[in-house]
Write a structure and sequence with these properties.
Layout: H1 9-15, E1 23-34, E2 37-48, E3 52-56, H2 63-70, E4 78-83, E5 86-87, E6 90-93, E7 96-99, H3 102-109, E8 112-115, H4 127-137, H5 143-156, H6 172-184, E9 190-194, H7 202-218, E10 222-226, H8 230-236, E11 239-244, E12 247-252, H9 254-259, H10 264-273
Helix pairs in contact: 4-5, 4-6, 5-6, 6-7
Bound molecules: adenosine-5'-triphosphate.
Length: 274
């Protein structure tokens, strides 16, 4: 997919609301290419601390790429990304901004948790250990502290009775709820959700979304969410960003975007998915 290189000023302004200094995520003129395919084109947007922001848009518009950039699974070709005021993609050395080394990225990335489409649990570890592994080995928590934290989270996701099972002994929905608990166990400031229900059987979707609704409404965690579940997006989002061909073409409250979209492409997209 190629995209034009000249996003409209209005689109950039829509995507880059007034900054009040509390932004937790900041994309500044981020361009990402795969060969000649310009996936993100001078993208600017901010997510304020504690807000829940949903990215919507057609397949291939670059939504997952944004989450992958935040996880440092891919690097931007141009522009900078900041998380909680620190550069993720770059670091400052001798007063100069240089591409970030792995150590720097790892430190900043600790602020971010992600839940993937395909759960990605450790198949050889029981549920409890899936959740305690990173807090013990990455954060240096004692085993007792990590287990205490894991038990609380298993209660939050409704799986207290399953802590001694292997992932293969759980349904897809239960595995995804373990993955949510695992991400939260690192106490991230930002939770990234990448189409977390799209690999689930339809009857398991509601249980996972209910857990996420509960987390969105009962914690102050910042969320950046890619989903095709528009009712869920409507319920949890403070802001919805509509992507098309590497640009944010429209942004606003869920009421505005879902009920009264301004852009023709948004109307087309919503009429196809709603
Ligand atoms: N590793 C890669 N190598 C080459 N091209 C890639 C790679 N990853 C993504 N792309 C391309 O980048 C574009 C954006 O992909 P991305 O997954 O971010 O889109 P998306 O909006 O999340 O789509 P979907 O809703 O289908 O998941 C697509 O054209 C895709 O083919």
């Amino acid at each position: 997919m190629s995209v034009e290189n000249t996003p409209s000023t209005a689109a950039q302004e829509a995507a880059n609301p007034a900054v009040d200094g509390s932004e937790l995520i900041r994309f500044e003129n981020v361009t990402k290419r795969y060969g000649s395919n310009v996936v993100l084109d001078s993208l600017c947007f901010d997510v304020a601390s504690g807000k829940h922001v949903t990215l919507i848009g057609p397949s291939g518009s670059g939504k997952t790429t944004i989450l992958r950039l935040l996880m440092t699974l891919v690097k931007p070709d141009e522009g900078t990304i900041k998380v909680a005021g620190e550069y993720l993609s770059h670091e400052e050395r001798n007063g100069k901004l240089v591409p970030a080394g792995e150590r720097h990225s790892r430190e900043v990335r600790k602020k971010i948790g992600m839940v993937f489409q395909q759960f990605n649990l450790f198949p050889n570890m029981k549920v409890l250990r899936n959740i305690t592994e990173a807090p013990v080995h990455v954060l240096g928590l004692s085993k007792d502290e990590a287990e205490q934290r894991a038990r609380e989270l298993l209660e939050l996701v409704g799986l207290t009775d399953h802590l001694d099972k292997y992932p293969s002994q759980l349904s897809g929905g239960q595995q995804q709820r373990v993955a949510i608990a695992r991400a939260l166990a690192m106490r991230p400031q930002v939770l990234l959700l990448d189409e977390v229900t799209s690999a689930l059987d339809p009857e398991l979707v509601a249980g996972v979304l209910d857990v996420l609704r509960d987390i969105a409404h009962s914690t102050d965690i910042t969320m950046l969410c890619v989903t095709h579940e528009m009712n869920f997006a409507r319920d949890i989002s403070d802001d919805v960003l509509m992507f098309d061909a590497g640009h944010v073409i429209e942004s606003g409250s869920p009421e505005k975007i879902f009920s009264d979209p301004e852009h023709e492409r948004t109307r087309e997209f919503l009429s196809a998915v709603l």
